[in-house]
């Protein structure tokens, strides 16, 4: 922890300002930051609505200030709005657009600065209409939230606004949709330009209904539920390489590509995860199918290490699993940090024999024995690995040949210990 803003900003490449939404406070922080900051250090404000031009006023180097607006929970939602001011350099914008994907985030450049940018203007429009619906007794907060989360909220999470309506237009697309529903713009379907009086009566009405809706659930528990659901939604989207899931998949691939060279003489670290809530079953521990999924991810990690990665698959060769045997040796609970290491038992001809061990710290949780066959994907038949893969397999097999034989290797189901 630094003792001052100046100390914190010394030698930094990126300075993120997240102080209260008051220009005088922000300007005071910038002034102190610039006393030690490098001239080319980016200054990124997380303001929700102040234009960057207004923030740049007193800066010595206004060209390096921009808005980088994230969304709560920042550690799960990938999008950030990138907004430049009148004096922001194109270099600063491009550096931010390049840097934030390395954190697994999805930067979106806002083309013109405007108060509240894009997302908060959309949220404000929905919020104002929602206030009217509650105030006029059309629905309760519970009913309105149900309409969102059981309906169009699910569509928006994967398609956004315009792709949702494009699909609604059918084969004729967006032009047909707009021709069909364009006249609605002149109908009395919104009070968007009219704001209800924000008085104690309205506050009491909404607060009371909100308390009745979810006041019995502690805030921390609601946050946990929200985060669990966000993770599950993004993992589902990742399986289809779509939306927020595409950003997650790209980030994980980059992390795997940049992983340091392993110590080939030891069992290889091939997969690690903090057990998410949706991996648990009705008994409160990790369900059996997730053991196989985790070991499958470990096999994928090993395959990337030896060169049978996405590029290899595109070139027409891969490894298929022919046989698997899993031993469940200990319970795995939510939020446990589990890690899998992989040992090559044998790699001859078309066959690769692997041994996985799953641990939480030093505690052995499960083992899995796999027999893999190298395949020609075009012929859909077994085949010898390409020379580069063969060389890597031989290298690992030779390095692992001196490792102790794993306890439990070759066991069959029901065999006594």
TrEMBL record:
Record-listed E.C. numbers: 1.1.1.35
BP term (GO), one: fatty acid metabolic process
Lineage of source species: Bacteria, Pseudomonadati, Pseudomonadota, Alphaproteobacteria, Rhodobacterales
Signal peptide: none
Enzyme type, top EC level: oxidoreductase
Domain annotation 3-hydroxyacyl-CoA dehydrogenase C-terminal: ranges: 117-182
PANTHER family found in the cross-reference section: 3-HYDROXYACYL-COA DEHYDROGENASE FAMILY PROTEIN, 3-HYDROXYBUTYRYL-COA DEHYDROGENASE
Sample GO molecular function, one term: NAD+ binding
SUPFAM superfamilies, per database record: 6-phosphogluconate dehydrogenase C-terminal domain-like (SSF48179), NAD(P)-binding Rossmann-fold domains (SSF51735), Thioesterase/thiol ester dehydrase-isomerase (SSF54637)
Keyword line: Oxidoreductase
Protein name stated in the entry: 3-hydroxyacyl-CoA dehydrogenase
Domain 3-hydroxyacyl-CoA dehydrogenase NAD binding: 3-113
């Amino acid at each position: 922890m630094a003792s001052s803003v100046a100390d914190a900003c010394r030698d930094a490449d990126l300075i993120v300002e997240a102080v209260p939404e008051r220009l005088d406070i922000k300007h005071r922080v910038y002034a102190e930051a610039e006393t030690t900051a490098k001239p080319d250090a980016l200054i990124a404000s997380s303001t929700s609505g102040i234009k960057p031009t207004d923030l740049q006023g007193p800066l010595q180097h206004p060209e390096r200030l921009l808005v980088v607006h994230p969304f709560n929970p920042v550690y799960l939602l990938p999008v950030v709005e990138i907004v430049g001011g009148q004096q922001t350099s194109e270099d600063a914008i491009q550096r931010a657009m390049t840097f934030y994907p390395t954190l697994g985030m999805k930067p979106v450049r806002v083309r013109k600065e405007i108060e509240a940018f894009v997302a908060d203007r959309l949220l404000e429009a929905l919020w104002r209409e929602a206030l009217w619906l509650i105030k006029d007794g059309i629905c309760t907060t519970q009913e309105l939230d149900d309409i969102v989360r059981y309906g169009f909220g699910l569509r928006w999470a994967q398609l956004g606004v315009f792709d949702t309506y494009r699909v609604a237009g059918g084969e004729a697309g967006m032009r047909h949709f707009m021709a069909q529903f364009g006249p609605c713009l002149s109908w009395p379907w919104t009070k968007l330009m009219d704001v209800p009086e924000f008085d104690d009566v309205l506050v009491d009405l909404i607060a009371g209904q909100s308390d009745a809706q979810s006041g019995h659930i502690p805030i921390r528990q609601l946050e946990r539920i929200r985060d669990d659901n966000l993770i599950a939604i993004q993992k589902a989207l990742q399986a289809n390489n779509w939306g927020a899931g595409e950003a997650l998949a790209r980030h994980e691939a980059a992390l795997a590509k940049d992983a340091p060279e392993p110590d080939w003489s030891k069992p290889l670290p091939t997969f690690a995860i903090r057990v998410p809530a949706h991996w648990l079953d009705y008994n409160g521990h990790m369900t059996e199918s997730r053991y196989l999924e985790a070991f499958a991810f470990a096999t994928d990690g090993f395959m990337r290490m030896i060169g049978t990665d996405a590029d290899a698959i595109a070139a027409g060769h891969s490894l298929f699993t022919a046989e698997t045997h899993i031993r469940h040796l200990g319970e795995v609970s939510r939020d446990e940090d589990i890690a899998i290491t992989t040992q090559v038992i044998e790699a001859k001809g078309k066959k690769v024999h692997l041994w996985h061990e799953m641990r939480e710290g030093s505690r052995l949780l499960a083992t899995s024995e796999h027999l893999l066959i190298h395949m020609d994907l075009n012929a859909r038949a077994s085949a010898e690995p390409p020379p580069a893969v063969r060389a890597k397999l031989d290298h690992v097999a030779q390095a692992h040949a001196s490792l102790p034989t794993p306890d439990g290797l070759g066991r069959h189901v029901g065999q006594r210990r």
